[in-house]
Amino acid sequence: MASAAYKYIIVGGGVSAGYAAREFVNQGIKSGELAIISKEAVAPYERPALSKAYLFPENAARLPGFHVCVGSGGERLAPEWYAEKGIELILDTEVVKADIATKTLTTSAGNSFKYDVLVAATGSTFIKLSDFGVAGADSKGIYYLREIREADSLIEAIKSKKDGHAVVVGGGYIGLELAAVLTMNKLQVTMVYPEPWCMPRLFTSDIASFYEGYYLSKGVKIVKGTVASGFELDAEGHVTAVKLKDGRELAADIVIVGVGARPLTTLFKGQLEEEKGGIKVDGFFKTNNEDVYAVGDIATFPMKIYGEQRRVEHVDHSRKSAIQAVQAIKAKEEGRSIPEYDYLPFFYSRAFDLSWQFYGDNVGETVSFGRDEAAATKKFGGYWVKDGKVVGVFLEGGSAEENKAIAKVARLQPSIDSIEALASEGLAFISKV
């Protein structure tokens, strides 16, 4: 049983870990002070690539091309970078126990690691159909996507089931992105989700109707208002069809499930304060333990702009929260102060030749603009208005300048004269702010 000690340890090897490592270097850590312990076998990478470019039939993304921090326009941190900076990259290693009182992490192999300061960046994992009691949910041919090894398995399945049937269970981020890329791979795709429209946590029915119509035009079939209840299997236990709760069956050579995620906080149960499903932190991502910080998906933090605690599952927050935590750690050591985290919610997606961005909060009344079925361009969007102020903006097909402008609107929350006036102005409203 081996043991080692580091001044700083990051547990988790996803997006947050990579951005935290870069910030530690920017802040001037010494060689040998930092270790990253990751369950994955590869250095931190930009996870959104897995549901997009990694599965492309042509010109697919491959490592080392999308290691962090290329997703935000920064330097690509290949494995050699960590060695050059004196950072210990401990891969293919799962931490199974965290003892906060003794500042000790224990791995599945029985090795222990001591730290002075811990950055918890364990992220999320997918919710499985077996969590809902769906019979046969672990059968062959059923896939989930979170890590690169799962993407590799899916690629092999796509190759072996050429021109076959794929069923995507779920109508959110992952469902929409995977339905698009599977269609690009010339599979016959059907999406199944229980809600009345896709992406219900963000999209209005009006916004969703555009995307559903577009997907239908690309050959994607959509089944709404029902869920998978079981599977037909062949003699080898491989799925051949998805049984739906409403009695229908869908032919399936491949089933991909994207029904949500849950934060990986088990290591810290009973040791760190929790709230709203995550680990409660302050505006510097410090937990109730002075020497433990939690970032990314697992952190429930003060959303300063809205005056409430929230947990956010998105790559943009994963990057920024990691940077904030490391800056706070170093500032504390040096007796300096830094501003509290002041995050503006940001979500985006790309699928087929579509690309949308959303900033702010999707609460209050909604105002759609720009929808013109006859127009050659696909630029349209929507505003969310609460208490006479624009608090959220969605834009499909925006330019870099327009996307920057909608972020400014969501941050400033300008007052409007009336809902009718805003609807009449449409996208032109952003130029006034």
TrEMBL record:
Coiled coil: none
Tagged with keyword Membrane: no
Swiss-Prot/TrEMBL catalytic activity: 2 monodehydro-L-ascorbate radical + NADH + H(+) = 2 L-ascorbate + NAD(+)
The protein's required cofactors: FAD
Gene Ontology terms, MF aspect: monodehydroascorbate reductase (NADH) activity
Enzyme Commission number(s): 1.6.5.4
Residue ranges constituting the Monodehydroascorbate reductase 3-like C-terminal domain according to the UniProt record: 344-429
Record-annotated FAD/NAD(P)-binding domain positions: 6-321
Keywords: FAD, Flavoprotein, NAD, Oxidoreductase, Redox-active center
Family classification: Belongs to the FAD-dependent oxidoreductase family.
Record protein name field: monodehydroascorbate reductase (NADH)
Organism: Selaginella moellendorffii (Spikemoss)
